[in-house]
Amino acid sequence: MSDHAASAMPPGAHSEGPDLHVEKWEGIWMRVALVMTAIFITAITVAAVAWGIQIPGQFGRVDPNDLSGTPFANPGIRELSPGNYEVYMTAQAWMYTPNQIAVPAGSKVTFYITSKDIIHGFKIVDTNANTMILPGQISRTAASFEKPGTYNIICHEYCGLGHHTMYGQVIVHGSMDEPAAAQANEPNN
Amino acid sequence: MGTVVLIILFCILTMALWFNAYFLLLSRGVSQ
After folding, report:
1. pLDDT at residue number A57
2. Which of B10, B11, B25 sits opposite A128 (nearest CB)?
3. I need a surface site. Which of A143, A156, A169, B3 has the fewest CB within 10 A?
4. Residues B20, B21, B25, B28: what is their CA dihedral angle, to the nearest 10 degrees?
């Protein structure tokens, strides 16, 4: 506080602010809550910065009315290297294309998804892959599939009367050599 | 005494529930 402001204060006033009395145990409760909040924020920061656990975001943009000339003109799964796949997928009311992919256990799959019409959702159950799909936007998310099984992909953004029927599947096979994996990736329509 | 027990219970429950969700998320790996 400047000298001018201090000299303008009325007699008897002090510059230490209002005298707020906080009851002893109320103060302890507040400190406990503050410490836990600090612990949680620190844990989230470590996970985001050190371990790369982040919210999926926008990867790029496309014209939803004309996907020709983009990888979404021929959606499907591509193997980048053994155990490392990318999937270009489109969403529209009320289906994903492709709606079923198959990979061997231990694979990492990166999904690039866009919508042809309205806003949809993309959630692979039991994984962290969880994003919105907007027309005009490419959403990117990835998941590693360590355990064999069938992982359902669900639309979790209400998109009309058929919303509840909009789903896909990731089929994870037991080994890299299983021929069923290649068969399941064939177009099924 | 009752307040101390309540604070301890509050801490244990909050930390247990929060870190349960946290480690579940970590176990599923990166999504980017």
Report:
1. 73
2. B25
3. B3
4. 60
pLDDT of A70 > 80? The answer is yes
A34 touches chain B (CB under 8 A): no
Cβ-defined contact of B31 to A130 (cutoff 8 Å): yes
Interface A-B, measured as beta-carbon pairs within 8 A, has a size of: 53
Whose tokens are 């806003």? That residue is A119
Structure confidence at residue A188 (pLDDT)? 46
Q: Does A156 touch chain B (CB under 8 A)?
A: no
Spatial distance between the Cα atoms of A169 and A184, rounded to a whole number of angstroms: 11
pLDDT of A22 above 90 = no
Task: From B3, B8, B12, select the one nearest A26 (Cα to Cα).
Answer: B3
- Chain B residues with CB under 8 Å of A52 CB are 30, 32
Alpha carbons A155 and A159: distance in angstroms, whole number: 8
Q: Which long-range contacts (CB under 8 A, 24 or more apart) does B16-24 make?
A: B18/A40, B19/A43, B22/A43, B22/A44, B22/A47
Task: Give the model confidence (pLDDT) of A23-67 as tens digits.
Answer: 999 999 999 999 999 999 999 999 999 988 888 777 889 999 999
Tokens 């979790």 belong to: A156
Of B7, B19, B32, the CB nearest to A32: B7
Q: Assess A11–B contact: CB distance below 8 Å, yes or no.
A: no
